[in-house]
Amino acid sequence: MGLKFPDARETAQPEAGAEAKVAAKIAGNTAVSAKPAAAQPVATKLTDKQIKEAQAWYAARKDQYTPEVLKQIQQKLGIAATGKADVATVQAIAKWQRENKDWPYKAGDEKFSVDGKASAKLLEKMFPSGLNDWSQMVDFSAKARKAINSWKNLSLDQRKAQVIILINQTLAGIGVPPIKTVILIDGKAENAYGLFLASEWTISIDRDLIENCTKDSDKASRLADTLYHEMRHADQNFALSRLAANQETKYPNPVDTLSSVAKIAAQRPLKTGSIEGIKANRFYQYKYGPESESRLKTRIQFRALENKEKSISGAIKANEENLAELLVKFNKTSGQEKVDIGKAIKSVRSLIESQKKELANVRLELSQLTRKIDQMYDESPLEDDAWRIGGMVGYLYGHP
């Protein structure tokens, strides 16, 4: 998966603090004005019913929210480290939810739900790590700017070589294996600025972003965004492989990661009952959980229809060329041969008409599946996570 081309998501709304800087327009997007929200009374504490619901939620996930994990959360919140999802802990988490915002890239998505449940998404914010760490984003945006600033007289191959070095230095800094290479693609044709392929451990980048960007151009900000987005997918997938390497819990589906990378991950397994394990499990369940088979079938169906569209289009072109030849012959002949050619012309025209109807139906199905896949993309926690932090880096690049 990767950063789509073009990116159609809404832009951020302001947030207080250092991360507020990302609230500006992301390259390629159109800003969305937000109407002032009506003042609402702020609840100070959860009700007894909400507390019981939260405690039941933790009890149902006791293999993840172990005493050790709960103690880490409690220490972060500055309360007694009991290792239990007691009332004080649930209320403290709810207080944190009220006082902190999720990454505000989408209208209506600025705040956490106040329910006292320390979800994996919440833990990403409370315990940032890997490329989700603010210092990593700041550091990468500065290094990307320095590299691109030196590109004026470099060839495309030289620029690509620098991109590979930049990527692998960044991944090494967070303990993720280096990518094998960067592949240049036609972004418009691929409908993506970038792609990460776990099975090959490679990153593909829109050629235009590297070939035609200058230090202060929109393309440069988009390139920084895209590189970080795709590196985050490497970060995510390495965590998935580490989680799958955990022998305490047998995950039912294999992780399709390059074998050499999986071997490295096996040396650093993630515990299910750990902060990092909980965060990785969120991505794992989406990619390999119960609903993943349905999403895979949708993608396979889409590819099959794409191939069918190409096949029918090719057949129509061949038949139209055949028809043109028959028409030339028809005008040059007479008698029975002309009659026979006339019948052939009628038959080919009928076939072309039938094929065009079939093509129209296939394109309608493709259009419907495209909308479905777009929805899958928007709902994917892997893409949402990578999009958000990549967008931050893109903004930081443009606002050093």
TrEMBL record:
Species for this entry: Deinococcus xinjiangensis
Sorted alphabetically, which keywords does the UniProt record give? Coiled coil
Where on the tree of life does the source sit, at the highest rank?
Answer: Bacteria
Q: What is this protein called?
A: Peptidoglycan binding domain-containing protein
Coiled coil segments of this chain: 345-379
